[in-house]
Amino acid sequence: MSTDTKELLETRDNELKKVLQLKLLLDAMRLLDMGKNQSPEIKRALKLVSIGEFMRLGNDDGQQDYVLDLQEDKIAPALSYTDRKALRTSLKEKLQESLTPIAELGDQIREEFPEVFSKDVELNPGQKEIIRLEVEHRESLEKKGELLSRKCALLNDAAELKMGPHLVNELQLKQASAEVTQTKAELLCSCFMNEIASRTEHSVKAIKEGC
After folding, report:
1. Per-residue pLDDT tens over the stretch 29-57
2. Closest CA to 95 of 17, 14, 31, 13
3. Residue 24, CA distances (Å) to 92, 125, 127, 172 in order
4. At what angle do helices 3-30 and 81-112 cross, to 10 degrees?
5. 0.90 exceeded by pTM
6. How far apart are CA 186 and CA 191, in angstroms?
7. Selection from 39, 21, 26 nearest residue 87 by Cα
8. For the chain, what percentages of helix, strand and coil (3-state, to nearest 5) are there?
C-alpha cells in the first residue's frame, strides 16, 4: 500500500471518528433528563438539540429556510455557569451509562482472545503458509483476469482476420458466377446468330433452286 493511500485512509478514519463522536454526543443529549436540575434555559437548549436537524430545509439553490422562522443564532439561550456545569455533569453520566457496558465487553473480549488484538503476535508456520497461499491465490486470480481479457481481444482480432479472406473468397465466387453467366449468355447469343445465319443460307439456296 502506497504512502498516499495510507494517509488517505488515516484521514478518513479520523474524520469518521469525529462524526461518530459528534453523533454519540447528540444522541446522548437528546435522551438527557436532568430532573430537578433542569432549568428553563437547559430545557430549551436540549429541545433545540432535539429538533436542530429538522429546523433547516434545503433548497436547490443552496439556501436554507428555517421552519417557523427559527434561527439558531437568535433563539439559542445563554446558559449560566451553573447550568453549563450541571449539563456537563449529566451528559458525562449519560455517556458513562451508555459506554461502560461497551468498554467492559471490549475488555472481556481482549482477555479471552488476546492473540487477536496483539500487534506483536507471532504467526506459526501453518498460519504464515495460509496467508502466503491466500496472497498467491489472489494474485493468480488477478493474472487470470488479465489473461482472459487478453484472450477476448485476440479472439476478436482473429475473427476480424478470418472474415477478411472469407469476404474476398465470397466476392471472387460471385465474380466467377457472373462470368459463367456472361459466358452462357454469349454462347446462347452465338448459337442464336449461327441458327439465324444457317436458316438464312438454306432459304437463299432454296429460292435459287426454285428459280
Report:
1. 777 777 776 777 777 777 766 655 555 55
2. 31
3. 12, 43, 38, 80
4. 120
5. no
6. 9
7. 39
8. 85, 5, 15
